[in-house]
Design brief:
By secondary structure, the protein is α/β, with parallel strands linked by helices. It has 20 helices and 31 strands. Strand 4, helix 3 and strand 5 form a beta-alpha-beta unit. The longest helix has 17 residues.
């Protein structure tokens, strides 16, 4: 058994070095300082609370649920758990007590010894959660401590070294694709990852960190709060709700406090792109202090990076400050993010014979480099069909080894299936698809999210990226794609609409235009597109769409639907038989045109006046390759001709197609009527 320093020892180090230095600042909705605390006062509060909960029966090894909505109360409680040798279990508490159903499942899984909370939160939750009632005697309210009743020594006596394997906290995953699972993070996991973050993003005691990220998830907890304590930095905290309400508060806060480090998921940068430059305070915005703008936690969009850098360069933002990164709770947080000059930050993802079969037919697009991993870590890409290590640029499952990788989920007896033994080392199978090129990681998406249509693999993020880039009415981050059943190729799109654009979408013909664009861009057609109110899809506590509950809401009809597109249904290609006879007997161009336009109307719903025969093609009208093949086969059978697919290019104009079809019909029926044909 070996020992590693702990986060409490790092706190002591900061107190010895700079006792009066501000450790954390909490802001109000106006970005003004609401409260701040020095490193010395932070430690005193931690010591008081740790002794208090110790008096209440908390001992080393106990699992302590933390239910807080306030940054400072949470930070002090989390550190007090570490001081006592307990295992902290952060629990998301919604502002509305009715939205805390997730707590029931978590409590039954975590088997908590005690819960730390405030009197107000505890009383609210007990009313809606029977599990809390049953353990009410083990709920410790920490907001009204009588300091005089707590034995307190002002001498700074450091705790003993913490064993490497000691579980410092259990991080419950957000559960976007299933039930939340408790990731056990040991002291070794945590301290190694905090060091890696410092070295990857150049965090030190002179850094000023600004964050709106929730403290109950890995990026906010490990990447911001604990990293700030580890490095001895100053950290400014904005309530996540205040950011979501007014995204400019994030940038204005960075400017006001001259922050050096800040970041978040891709959607946060997207939200900033909607900020009007005439907004209050934006004229004085100065982002020149922002040295590290990390972006991760989900798919990183190259378009977002370019547009953000371009929009805010006039305000002092340096595009080289962008640090795309990859991480997950099972790796404590960070896996990769180190920049390199050897590889382009984005590459065009193209297909070739070297790629493995699983990803052979995925759509093309730009993929952002998420940097190199730390020297302590190693990444292997494992092919999905052969379970072999892939070579450079070959896609497969991302598997990670290192001292920051967790050992298993709490309460799950068999964790062996989650790991792969390679050369005697245990690599965690992330469930993510990607590839490595020149030691840099490229993330393609979650394997579970891949939608297989006619043997081709599609990532929902490809659809979302293309559609949001083209249509400004789509609410970024409000997109879901899934198959109606596993036994068919029909797929559904759920798309949230910006509140300011709802009337535009409903009143104009954007819906048909969007469906046709999907056919053009991806050569497939959705069965249905449901346009929804903004932020109406069920979400996890981390803000991601909850796929499982959203799909259930679709099938039960409980979504807040604004409008619906549904692919045209038709009985084969039944068309007026008199028209077909007239074409065979007279072969007039206008009759053939009417026939083809009628087919297009049945397939796409498009009206005749909207078809430009000189410029439109089957492709631009949204007819995918499968439907196009069906059309050609039907025409060939109906008229006993042979329209060759290799000659009938889908990109040819409708007019060119009509001429080709007219000529073949003349050849087929012209001799029968003894008419002379000139070709």
């Amino acid at each position: 058994m070996s020992n590693t320093e702990s986060i409490i020892q790092r706190l002591y180090s900061s107190v010895r070095k700079s006792p009066y230095k501000t450790s954390f600042i909490k802001l109000n909705s106006l970005n003004d300082v609401e409260e701040k605390i020095s490193y010395e006062d932070l430690l005193k509060n931690v010591e008081i609370l740790s002794k208090y909960i110790n008096c209440k029966g908390v001992k080393r090894g106990d699992r302590l649920g933390l239910m807080y909505t306030d940054y400072f109360e949470f930070i002090i409680a989390f550190l007090a758990c570490q001081y006592c040798g307990g295992t902290a279990v952060p629990i998301y508490v919604a502002k509305s007590a009715k939205k805390n159903e997730h707590i029931i499942n978590l409590l039954s899984n975590a088997k908590l010894t005690f819960i730390l909370s405030t009197s107000e939160i505890a009383s609210q939750l007990i009313d809606v959660c029977q599990e809390l009632v049953e353990m009410s005697e083990r709920v410790i309210c920490t907001d009204n401590i009588d300091v005089k009743s707590v034995f307190f020594s002002s001498s700074l006596i450091e705790s003993a070294l913490v064993p490497d394997e000691h579980p410092v906290f259990i991080q419950y995953t957000s559960g976007s694709t299933g039930d939340p699972k408790g990731v056990i993070i040991s002291n070794e996991n945590l301290m190694h990852n905090l060091r890696n973050i410092s070295e990857t993003f150049f965090v030190n005691d002179e850094s000023i960190i600004f964050s709106w990220l929730p403290f109950y998830h890995d990026m906010g907890l490990v990447g911001v709060i604990l990293e700030s304590i580890y490095a001895g930095s100053t950290c400014i905290l904005l309530d996540p709700v205040h950011f979501l309400q007014t995204p400019s508060r994030w940038l204005l806060g960075i400017s006001k406090f001259k922050a050096t480090h800040s970041g978040g998921p891709n959607f946060a940068y997207d939200m900033c792109l909607e900020i009007e430059q005439e907004s209050i305070g934006m004229s004085n915005l100065d982002l020149s202090s922002w040295k590290v703008a990390f972006i991760g936690a989900d798919f990183v969009n190259s378009s977002t990076i370019r547009r953000f850098s371009r929009k805010f360069e006039t305000f002092g933002f340096n595009k080289n400050s962008i640090f795309p990164c990859y991480g997950l709770a099972e790796a404590t947080l960070l896996v990769s993010g180190m920049k390199s000059l050897k590889c382009s930050p984005t590459i065009l993802f193209e297909h070739n014979n070297k790629r493995d079969a699983y990803a052979n037919n995925m759509s093309q697009g730009e993929v952002v480099s998420l940097g190199r991993c730390h020297k302590d870590l190693d990444i292997k890409i494992i092919s999905l069909d052969r379970d072999q290590v892939c070579g450079d640029s070959e896609e497969g499952e991302i598997c990670v080894y290192g001292p920051n990788i967790f050992s298993g989920y709490f309460g799950l007896d068999n964790n062996s299936k989650m790991f792969l033994n390679i050369d005697g080392l245990k690599y965690f199978k992330t469930g993510d698809l990607g590839f490595v090129l020149q030691k840099e990681l490229y993330f393609l998406g979650r394997i579970k999210d891949v939608v297989v249509i006619r043997g081709r693999n599609f990532f929902p993020v490809d659809f979302e990226t293309k559609l949001t880039d083209k249509y400004d009415f789509i609410f970024k981050g409000g997109f879901l794609m899934f198959k109606e059943t596993d036994l068919c190729d029909d797929f559904i799109l759920l798309i949230e609409i910006k509140r300011t654009k709802i009337n535009v979408v409903v009143s104009e013909r954007w819906i048909d235009d969007l469906s046709r664009y999907i056919g053009i861009a991806f050569d497939v057609q959705p069965l249905k597109i449901l346009f929804l109110s903004p932020r109406s899809l069920p979400r996890t506590s981390s803000g991601k769409i909850n796929r499982k509950i959203s799909k259930h809401s679709y099938f039960t009809g409980s979504l807040k639907v604004i409008d619906v597109y549904e692919r045209q249904s038709y009985d084969g290609f039944v068309i007026d038989y008199d028209l077909i006879l007239r074409i065979k007997n007279q072969c007039k161009y206008e009759d053939i045109k009417l026939y083809i336009f009628t087919l297009l109307n049945k397939i796409t719903g498009i009206i005749f006046d909207e078809i430009d025969e000189d410029n439109d093609s089957f492709r631009t009208l949204g007819v995918d390759s499968l439907r196009f093949t069906e059309v050609i086969n039907y025409i060939n059978k109906e008229f006993e001709i042979h329209l060759r697919l290799d000659l009938v290019r889908k990109n040819s104009s409708i007019g060119d197609f009509l001429i080709y079809m007219e000529n073949l019909i003349w050849v087929r029926y012209g001799f029968v009527s003894n008419n002379e044909i000139i070709l």
